[in-house]
C-alpha cells in the first residue's frame, strides 16, 4: 500500500515527565505509516522556569524530524531574541535559522547517516492531563482521541491549561509552519491564519504563482 499499511501499528511508547512547575505525559504511535516519521521534544525544565514542547512531522522520512528534535532546542536557547525574552521572535528566528542549516554539506551528511541507520526510537508526541481510568476500554479511549483530534487547537490548549490547575501566571508562545493557536493566561487566540483554498489570500497567492 505504498507509504501506508493495511493495518495500523497501535503499539505506544509513552513517558511521564516531572518538572519543578509541571507534570506532563507524552505518547507516540506509528499508526498507518510504514515507519514512525515523527519526533518530539518535551523539555519540562528547558531553561529555569521555561518549558519547551515541540512536535516534528517527518512528511516522508524520519531523518529531519529526528535531527530537529536533537538540535532545535539548543538553536532556540542560543538565539538573541530568546536571551532578551522575546520568545515569539525567538521561535520565528530559530525556525528560519535552523531551516537554513539543513542545506549545508555538514548537515546533509548527518541527515544521510540518520536515514541509513534507521530510526532509533519511536518518537512522536501526544499528551494527556489528569488520571485515566485503568478500566477504560480501548474503544472509549480511541473515541476520546478522535474527538480531541477534531477540536480546534485553541480548545485543546485551553483544556490542558485547565487541567494543570496552576494558579501562577503563565505565558505560552507557539510557532508553526501551519495554522496554530497560542494561549496566554488561560485565553486562546489564533496565531496564524488557516490555509484554505477558497480564501482570498490563497487565491491571490496561487494566481501570482501561475
From TrEMBL:
It comes from the Eukaryota. Keywords: Hydrolase, Metal-binding, Protein phosphatase. Pfam families: PP2C (PF00481). InterPro entries: PP2C (IPR015655), PP2C_BS (IPR000222), PPM-type-like_dom_sf (IPR036457), PPM-type_phosphatase-like_dom (IPR001932). Residues 117-141, 164-210 are annotated as: Disordered. Residues 130-140 have a biased composition (Acidic residues). Residues 23-210 form the PPM-type phosphatase domain. Residues 164-196 have a biased composition (Low complexity). Residues 197-210 have a biased composition (Basic and acidic residues). Transmembrane segments: none annotated. Coiled coil: none annotated. GO terms for molecular function: metal ion binding; protein serine/threonine phosphatase activity. PANTHER family: PROTEIN PHOSPHATASE. This is PPM-type phosphatase domain-containing protein. It comes from Apolygus lucorum.
Amino acid at each position: 500500500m505504498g507509504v501506508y499499511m493495511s493495518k495500523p501499528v497501535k503499539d505506544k511508547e509513552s513517558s511521564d515527565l516531572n518538572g519543578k512547575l509541571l507534570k506532563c505525559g507524552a505518547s507516540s504511535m506509528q499508526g498507518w505509516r510504514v515507519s514512525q516519521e515523527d519526533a518530539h521534544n518535551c523539555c519540562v525544565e528547558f531553561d529555569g522556569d521555561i518549558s519547551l514542547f515541540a512536535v516534528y512531522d517527518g512528511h516522508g522520512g524520519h531523518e529531519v524530524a529526528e535531527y530537529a528534535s536533537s538540535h532545535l532546542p539548543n538553536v532556540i536557547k542560543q538565539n538573541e531574541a530568546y536571551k532578551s525574552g522575546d520568545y515569539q521572535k525567538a521561535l520565528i528566528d530559530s525556525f528560519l535559522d535552523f531551516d537554513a542549516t539543513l542545506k549545508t554539506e555538514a548537515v546533509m551528511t548527518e541527515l544521510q547517516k540518520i536515514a541509513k541507520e534507521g530510526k532509533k526510537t519511536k518518537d512522536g508526541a501526544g499528551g494527556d492531563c489528569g488520571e485515566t481510568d485503568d478500566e477504560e476500554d480501548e474503544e472509549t479511549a480511541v473515541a476520546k482521541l478522535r474527538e480531541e483530534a477534531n477540536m480546534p487547537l485553541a480548545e485543546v490548549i485551553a483544556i490542558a491549561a485547565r487541567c494543570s490547575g496552576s494558579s501562577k501566571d503563565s505565558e505560552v508562545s507557539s510557532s508553526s509552519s501551519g495554522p496554530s493557536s497560542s494561549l496566554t493566561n488561560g485565553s486562546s487566540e489564533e496565531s496564524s491564519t488557516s490555509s484554505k483554498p477558497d480564501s482570498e489570500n490563497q487565491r491571490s497567492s496561487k494566481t501570482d504563482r501561475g
